[in-house]
Write a structure and sequence with these properties.
Blueprint: H1 12-17, E1 19-22, E2 30-33, H2 39-56, H3 63-78, E3 79-83, H4 91-98, H5 104-117
Antiparallel strand pairs: 1-2, 2-3
Length: 132
């Protein structure tokens, strides 16, 4: 098989500015997110994990703490809006929701959508398409 090199190129502008991505487990719900590859987010996430490692040393970081901390980073860098929920998006509502460990499912949904945004669609040359 021969892969088209151009199909492996990430859409960096879309990843940075964000786009609407539906969450398949909740029909009608979609999130406007940037990709998890956003440099500002990656730096903030790295610093977060350094801080948590110092605080918890050899102990595992509690899931509630990690969910809340990541939720805060998503609000700051990744999440730009949502549709399909019974509460309208606002930055204040988002931070209150995503920092609450009880809303870990929402944090997970946003992470899923942000990861999907950076996926590529591998294409093959025309001569190889029928041979898979």
């Amino acid at each position: 098989m021969t892969v088209k090199l151009s199909s492996l190129k990430a859409n960096l502008e879309r990843e940075k500015r964000g786009d609407w991505v539906p969450y398949p487990e909740w029909p009608g719900v979609r999130f406007n997110v940037s990709a998890l590859t956003l440099p500002e987010y990656e730096t903030a996430r790295h610093l977060l994990f350094q801080r948590l490692a110092k605080k918890y040393k050899d102990d595992p970081v509690p899931k509630e703490v990690l969910s809340s901390e990541l939720g805060g980073l998503y609000c700051e860098h990744i999440l730009h809006g949502w549709e399909g929920l019974d509460v309208d998006y606002s930055p204040e509502t988002a931070i209150a929701t995503l920092k609450d460990p009880a809303y870990r499912a929402v944090v997970g949904a946003i992470e899923y959508c942000a990861a999907k945004l950076s996926q590529i669609e591998v294409e093959f040359t025309a001569a190889e398409e029928g041979n898979s």
